[in-house]
Amino acid sequence: MKLLRSVLILLFFSISMHATDKLFFLPQDQEAVSARVLKEINISRKSIVIVMHDFTYKKIALDLIRAKKRRNLDITVFLDFKENNKNSIVDLLRKNKIEVKLITSTLHASFILFDEDILMFGSLNLNKSAFKSNYEVLMFSDDSKNIKKALLFLEKTLKK
């Protein structure tokens, strides 16, 4: 009985310490990814940081604006200057008090950090093609090591 209890305790701790990662492939998983992105935007309590090469998907921009108004979230969007300097989404976000920083170096990184708890990363950009027709790979992770690396990237690379 003691051995069984020890094994169960060990199993519980090994499962609870392991991060939950969820991998998606688009376009097959487009509905699941759209739902998950919307869910993460809606349940974020403090902050959302977006790092993208391209952001033209108005539906996601409007979801961000609604979340900002509901909870006064701290939302910052880092985008590639060449792709987005004449982008109406940038104007829409800024008009709604969402901070947008255009990066002059080529920015191909693609990730979103929700409340510094969930990291979404992969090849996905925030445009309709990425969700509906492109072949993309995307992962959601709550692994603290991945989140710390993303935060370090933000601090050392983008916020300087």
Explain the overall architecture.
This protein is an alpha/beta fold. The protein is 48% helix and 24% strand. It has 7 helices and 7 strands, in the order αβαβαβααβββαβα. It has helices at residues 2-17, 30-43, 58-71, 81-84, 88-95, 128-132, 144-158, and strands spanning 21-26, 47-52, 74-80, 99-103, 111-114, 118-122, 136-141. A 7-stranded mixed beta sheet has the order 1-7-6-5-2-3-4, with helices on both faces. The longest helix is centred in the first third of the chain and has 16 residues, at 2-17.
Question: How many runs of DSSP E, i.e. beta strands?
Answer: 7
Number of discrete helical segments = 7
Outline the biggest β-sheet: 7 strands, mixed
Which range does the strand content fall in? 15-25%
Q: How big is the Rg?
A: 18 Å
| Mass-distribution shape | globular
Order of strands, widest sheet: 1-7-6-5-2-3-4
Structural class based on helices, strands and sheet pairing? alpha/beta
* Mean pLDDT metric: 90
The CATH architecture term is 2-Layer Sandwich
Count structural domains.
1
CATH class descriptor = Alpha Beta
CATH-defined fold name: Endonuclease, Chain A
Order of helices and strands: HEHEHEHHEEEHEH
Helix content: 40-55%
The protein's oligomeric status is single chain
Instruction: Give the distance, in angstroms, between the N- and C-terminal Cα atoms.
Output: 57 Å
The named CATH superfamily? Endonuclease Chain A
Runs in which pLDDT lies below 50 for 5 or more consecutive residues are 14-18
